[in-house]
Amino acid sequence: MNTSNSDTKHESAYYDEKAPSLNLEDGDLKRSLKSRHLSMIAIGGTIGTGLFLGSGGSIHTAGPGGALVAYALIGIMVFFLMTSLGEMAAYMPISGSFNTYASRFVDPALGFALGWNYWFSWSITVAVELAAASVIMSFWLPNFPSWVWSLVLLAIMIGFNALSVKGYGESEYWFALIKVLTVIVFIIVGIVFICTRKGDDAALYGPSNFTYGEAPFKDGVLGVVQVFLIAGFSFQGTEIVGVTAGESENPQRDVPRAVKQVFWRILLFYICAITVLGMIVRYDNPNLLSGDVESIAESPFTTVFKLIGFAPATHLMNAIVLLTLLSAGNSGVYAATRTLWVLANEDKAPKFLKRVSRNGIPLFALAFTALISCLSFATSLFGNQVVYNWLLNASGITGFIAWFGISVSHFRFRKAFVAQGNDIQQLPYRAMFYPFGPIFATILIIIVIVGQGYSAFTASPVDWIGLVASYLGLFIFIILYIGSM
Question: Which residue windows are transmembrane per the record (predicted)?
Answer without folding.
Answer: 38-59, 65-86, 122-141, 148-168, 174-195, 262-283, 303-328, 361-382, 388-411, 432-452, 464-483
